[in-house]
Protein: DoxX family protein
Organism: Flavobacterium cupriresistens
Amino acid sequence: MNNTATILLLVFLALTFLQSGYEKVFYWKDNVSWLKEHFSKTILKNQVPLALFHLLILELISGILCVVGVIQLLTDSGREFGFYGAIFSCICLLMMLFGQRLAKDYDGARTIVIYFIPAVMAVYWLN
């Protein structure tokens, strides 16, 4: 197992984004309702459902690419899918960070940074 740390990071990212995507799909109305209130004083106040849909698509892409990346690392040591999964993960997290900063939710933004660090590590190790 030459790629143990990288595989663990990809599993972490896959779990994070597939679970988040699951929550958005099955609790869509609750998420939209909460986020409309969260962004009520920002320029995103009228764009919440569309922004959430875009984030959902990117999260699912991230999670799926990370899963395929783990399989690829285990079978032939290929890095392409995991690399793109990590890149998409970083993009998702930057989108969320932007939203939290826009809403002036600095504690939420700080939490996103905690997820961003392993995502960047995965990009670095897979590059």
